[in-house]
Amino acid sequence: MLEIPVDSLNEKDFIINEKVFAKELEIFDEKELFFSKPFEIMGKAYIVDDDLIVNLDIKCSFSMPCLICNEYVEKEIIIKNLYISEKLSNINEKYNYKDEVRNATFLEIPSFIECLDNCPKRDNFKKKLKQKNENFPFANLKEQ
Length: 144
Known about the structure:
By secondary structure, the protein is mainly beta. The chain has one domain. The strands form two sheets. A four-stranded antiparallel sheet has the order 2-3-4-5, with helices on one face. The protein has a two-stranded antiparallel ribbon with strand order 1-6. Strand 3 and strand 4 form a beta hairpin. The N and C termini lie far apart (73 Å). The mean pLDDT is 88.
């Protein structure tokens, strides 16, 4: 799984159509980030001169808390046309592309998300920001 047998690629493309869970990609659940659905990986691998070329489309979903209300939100990541190139001299019998899938996925995860891209509780948050802060702790200090 997540491997391409290089020996069989001399004359034909290797078709990739896999569903794998995050643990198979060595992605482990964290308190504020987890993947509950399998990753869908589709694509093909072929040889050009002395290089293995892998072209992948990746689809997955992750959950993390909303920046405003802290309710968990599920978002989808779609990566189209991820190209990977590796010299055949660097590959023994099989090429494992697990690390590339994991790294490409992590690059697409945003730092924060909001419910429905505009949290309904945002208005409450805006009101609190607009309130005047009457607390001036250093107001009585005098310059010398």
